[in-house]
């Protein structure tokens, strides 16, 4: 499996402004969220990226990523038919190849000093030659925000722990997760939820095409989690707990948490920590 293309979805009417917000990255440089993500993708060797956006947003996105090192293709999602539908619009861009996919309203903070989260995922997916999603252990009180997997623990050919995905449920309740999504090896009350980045085979686009056709006849929306559950039934599909954390910008204080996470792994982390302690101390006087 060789990856040369990536797709970022950023068309949600509720979250469309998040990718163009400005943060200070770990090098102390002010960049848009999207530019930070594009630089991470470029670090993997991928140079062609498709952005699926809300109609009319292209000019704002181009202004936010004026310093990007990748080649960009923009596609507007003219109809609000769901996340899966947005991803399906990139089928002609993908042209039957495996691809990397990330959501545009997340930032990914690696705890591996040498590799970004995207590099960790892509390197192992390439080695295993199969679709692979990044996942994170999540408390049951937070799983209602994410797609959550069921699977079994196994070892990759390089000896790393991965999970063979058996099922995926979008935003499950704790009761539903306890009944259907237990993963061996996790502490009680914790589940494996999607991290926001995936390496996907061309079969995903075929399943999406089927799902879009079905939704058109029923008037429903196309979500990605049911498509990935179907992928797991048709071919080998695995998950990797990457060394790092996702920062979901759409959550309350999401941008604040993302900026704090970047600052604490950045070149000025000591000064930032001192400032935080001073602010906390003053607030308690």
UniProtKB/TrEMBL annotation:
Xref: Pfam families: NTP_transferase
Domain Nucleotidyl transferase: 32-208
Record-linked PANTHER family: UTP--GLUCOSE-1-PHOSPHATE URIDYLYLTRANSFERASE (PTHR43197)
Biological source species: Haloferula chungangensis
InterPro entries linked to this entry: GalU_uridylyltTrfase_bac/arc, NTP_transferase_dom, Nucleotide-diphossugar_trans
Similarity annotation: Belongs to the UDPGP type 2 family.
Keyword Transferase: yes
Record field: catalytic activity: alpha-D-glucose 1-phosphate + UTP + H(+) = UDP-alpha-D-glucose + diphosphate
Keyword annotations: Nucleotidyltransferase, Transferase
E.C. designation(s): 2.7.7.9
Name the record gives this protein: UTP--glucose-1-phosphate uridylyltransferase
């Amino acid at each position: 499996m060789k990856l040369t293309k990536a797709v970022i979805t950023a068309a949600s009417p509720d979250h469309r402004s998040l990718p163009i917000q400005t943060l200070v990255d770990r090098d102390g440089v002010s960049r848009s969220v999207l530019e930070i993500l594009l630089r991470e993708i470029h670090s993997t060797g991928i140079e062609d990226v498709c952005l699926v956006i809300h109609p009319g947003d292209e000019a704002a996105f181009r202004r936010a990523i004026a310093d990007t090192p990748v080649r960009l293709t923009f596609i507007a999602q003219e109809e609000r038919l769901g996340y899966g539908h947005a991803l399906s619009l990139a089928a002609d861009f993908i042209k039957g190849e495996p691809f990397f996919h990330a959501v545009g309203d997340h930032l990914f903070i690696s705890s591996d000093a040498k590799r970004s989260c995207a590099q960790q995922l892509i390197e192992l997916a390439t080695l295993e030659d199969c679709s692979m999603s990044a996942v994170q252990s999540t408390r049951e009180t937070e799983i209602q925000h994410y797609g959550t997997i069921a699977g079994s623990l196994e070892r990759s050919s390089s000896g790393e722990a991965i999970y063979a995905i058996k099922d995926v449920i979008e935003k499950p309740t704790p009761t539903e997760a306890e009944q259907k999504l237990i993963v061996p090896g996790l502490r009680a009350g914790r589940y494996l939820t999607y991290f926001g980045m995936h390496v996907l085979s061309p079969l995903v686009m075929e399943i999406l095409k089927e799902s879009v056709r079905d939704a058109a006849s029923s008037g429903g929306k196309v979500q990605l989690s049911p498509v990935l559950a179907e992928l797991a039934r048709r071919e080998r599909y695995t998950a990797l707990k990457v060394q790092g954390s996702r920062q979901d910008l759409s959550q309350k204080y999401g941008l604040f948490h993302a900026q704090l996470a970047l600052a604490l792994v950045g070149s000025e982390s000591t000064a930032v920590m001192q400032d935080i302690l001073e602010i906390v101390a003053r607030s308690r006087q």
